[in-house]
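$ fold --in a.seq
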Amino acid sequence: MPQAGEGRAGGRRRGGGRRKKEPKRFGRMLPLLVGALVVALIALGTVLYFQLSGEDAEEQVAQETRPALYRVQDSGDTSNVNEVLASREADSRPLNEGELFERHNAEISGQSIDFTLRDSDLTEDCSAAVWGALARQALADADCSQAGRATYLSDGYFGVVGVFNLADIEGSRAVADALNLPEAEEGAEEEEAAEPVEDPGFVLPPSGESPFDRLGAGYSSADAIVTGHYLVVVWVQPTDSESVEERVSLATPLVTLANFRDPFFRRIGELGGGSQTDEGTDGTDTEGTTGTDGTGTEGTTGTDGTGTEGTAGDPPGEAPGTEGEQSVPGE
């Protein structure tokens, strides 16, 4: 009997010993589990940080730059665009994203160049679409209600289009002129230091992602086209251009990308102004292109017959011989 009791007691002691060892084994594993969890959380946090910071960087790297050549064009008397779309009062329907960035504007082709839409933005905050105090003030004075922007890519070029919905055609012309870089005043004494010319600012691309992070670093050209109470700015740069000194004729890509204006010609039909087609893409030459200094040149080709940078006879790679050029500072 005592032996049995002792056996049972010994059994209980041995059983108790085993129960005390189990928590100790779990206790040793707990720090390992916690350490593994911490490492996993750190790895996850690192991935999320770089993903989020990368997206923010793409949104913030749009450069405050301007084209080497900037010209103002006015539809003038070559069509009834300015007459039918003279004011927002007559053309009161707001722009919408489908109208601007879909249909024909998702892909814009012409003269052996195919542009494909990549980024787009339509906002009522016009000041967010440009940089520069003078540019923002000009948009405010013209009662800008909408600003649309898009980036386009092709095999040899990349481009930006900006559209501003202004109160009337006078405001459209005023904003176009305000974006022009003023020339330094002449007649100053050579020994006197010339006063710096204030850059009024220009259109900001909706994205600064490559290759648009190089926009303005190479040779680029822009046309501001007065289209009634809308101002359309078309800006292109060769993909392989790395210096503003690499002057080339950009008439062909400018003419092609200016077909972005098709929605405004459709509006003319909606408003009873008759059907309008974009003239000039077939190579028809017309007179009266308006440069930034107000002078005209002959023989230029434009999407509505008003003309763009360079003459029809400019050979590839040769700088356009037109008046009204505006170069970036230091050029």
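$ fold --in b.seq
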Amino acid sequence: MVMANVTTTCGFLLMGFSNTRELQILHALLFLLMYLSALAGNVIIIAVTTLDQHLQSPMYYFLKHLSFLDLAFISVTVPQSIDTSLTGNGCISHGQCMLQVFFFTSLAWAEVAILTVMSYDRYAAICLPLHYEAIMDPRACEWAVIAVWLSGGTSGILYTAATFSITFCRAKVIHQFFCDIPQLLKLSCSNDYLGVIGVAAFMTVLAFICFISIAHSYIHIFSTVLRIPSAEGRSKAFSTCLPHLFVVSFFLSIGIFEFLKSTSDSPTAFDIMISLFYTVVPPTLNPIIYSLRNKTMREALRKLLLDGEFTKKKTFLSYC
């Protein structure tokens, strides 16, 4: 009865990770460390790819937008979860939950779209080098990024409209640290969640098309790379493709597993850990994967931070 009264006054109740105060503080500290790491890493990539004139190719242009997406994606769920753990108050209003669903689904789909675009960029660069500049000209890259953001927004609108057309007739308790759609569907006691299933089925088909496109690109990429006579050339090609392939495989496999697995009324620690792997881990690891394994990125970062070029360009930009 108390829980029902709480959810009536605050909209939804996020149960989070634990009711033990010490574990709540530990969770807040760990999430804060991961959030600050993701924030620093993605901001560095955005700064380096913006300021360094040698990193103005399509690959780094798309990487910059991936960092924007990662930064926004982790900001949708983690700060709210940290606040919930520190205050011990899991209340989230109906409007806040709706916005969280919208931005989460928008950015999740935009990540899939930008990773697909990045795989095609690597395909064009390695398999069609003579036509690369014509295929990936600046205007085409701009339209590709616009399509990524628009498709993400469309996905968010569809999911949000379908999810919040549901009549919630149970206690609005969400056994997660954010407004997770599968958990929201369990609060319905009728069949009015079929619209969400329809949207999910439609987006799953699109995600499968993206997966086929990515797989097609990498089959051609690896067959081309293996024919390169120079060991240095093969190493350079693999150094740019393997990190991207790892990110794509990790993000898609965890996302597909999350959607296919059944949801229980009382999720286990394993269920919450899986949600961490597609909400928190990718935005935190992506900067490390793309920057530390990329020699060009490391050199650009060193020049900007140690050689004073960052300060010079910053001063120049302030005059402009």
